[in-house]
Amino acid sequence: MYKVVLIDDENKITRGLKQIINWTQLGCVVAGVAYNGKMGLQVVDETQPDIVITDIKMPYMDGLEMIEVLKSKSSPIKFIVLSGYSDFPYMQKSIKLGINNFILKPVDEQELENSVLDAIMSIETSRRELETIASLQTRSNMYAELINKQVLSGASSEDANQAILADFREQQINQQASMIHNIKKYIDEHYAENISLVSAAERFFINPSYLSQLFKKKTDDTFLNYVTKIRLEKAKRLLQETDLKVYEISSQVGYKDPKYFSKIFEKHAGVKPSDYKSPVRS
Questions:
Q1: What domain count does the chain have?
Q2: How far apart are CA 99 and CA 93, in angstroms?
Q3: Could you tell me which residue ranges the HTH araC/xylS-type domain spans (predicted)?
């Protein structure tokens, strides 16, 4: 879960930010709240958040002063700045601080959600870059050691190259398997949302076409078909174990159109959802 800290001198604003979107669905948890920049520094130090959503104008220390302090410590935190129409000079300063995620008050639900998703994407990009650098450094050291061993054992340079190439291929296979595992886990956890090949590719920072080919290669199934199977498995369980209406189940498993859901269900299950429902429950 990504930890979020909310900072605003108005209690009603922080309460509203807590309630306006489903933080859990975004993979986030509100780890702390503060009411000015000075208090914000303390809460940030205590909670070590990934994302800070802060107002600009606050007593004791404003939001930008707080951000300056945190950035001077090379903090990796992603900041989302709340601002009013009269805060343009402050926004200019925000841009100089490297912040480009602003939300105008009053806060719009969709805008806040999009800003949080942008922050999460930025966090994941940074993490992947660090992981790639660390992996390259490790492999570089490993290859250098392997070459030395091959040379000392009297092996030819061609043998050393073949050993490196074999290791590289093994690493690539492992990385691909790990990626598909993570994508399937993501689908299993977010099947009720509007998941598509493109949105999944964006989330995992890969080309949609490459994802499509890799998913088919590793699972012997298409991305869309896998999503459909997961949704229908959940739907069957709900039909058998609950008294929910078909249109309610349709919505819960990611289909906004009940008629389309019924059509897909019948195509795969051989019966209509209404006929699949168990007539007797223990």
A1: 2
A2: 9
A3: 181-279
Q: Is the pTM of this model over 0.85?
A: no
Residue 86 inside a domain? The answer is yes
What is the spatial distance between Cα 14 and Cα 20, in angstroms, rounded to a whole number?
A: 10
CATH number, domain at 277? 1.10.10.60
Per-residue pLDDT of the chain (282 residues; tens, 9 = 90+): 889 999 999 999 999 999 988 888 788 899 999 999 999 999 999 999 999 999 988 999 988 899 999 988 888 899 999 887 566 666 666 666 777 678 888 888 888 888 888 888 788 777 777 776 676 667 666 666 666 666 566 655 566 566 666 666 777 787 788 889 999 999 998 999 888 888 888 888 787 878 888 899 889 999 999 999 999 999 999 998 888 999 999 999 999 899 999 999 999 889 999 888 755 444
Is there a single domain that holds both residue 88 and residue 191? no
Q: Which domain holds residue 252?
A: 166-282
Q: Where are the alpha helices (DSSP H) in the chain?
A: 11-20, 37-47, 63-72, 88-96, 109-152, 157-190, 197-203, 208-219, 223-241, 246-252, 258-269, 273-276
The single residue listed with the structure tokens 């914000």 is 40
- Asked, for residue 37, whether it belongs to a domain, the answer is yes
Q: Let me know whether 243 and 183 are in one domain.
A: yes
CATH of the domain at 56: 3.40.50.2300
Phi, psi (deg, nearest 5) at residue 106: -70, 145
In a domain, 145, yes or no: no
How far apart are the C-alpha atoms of 82 and 79, rounded to whole Å?
Answer: 10
Q: Is residue 94 part of a domain?
A: yes
Q: What contacts 130, CB < 8 A, 6 or more positions away?
A: none
Q: Are residues 172 and 278 in the same domain?
A: yes
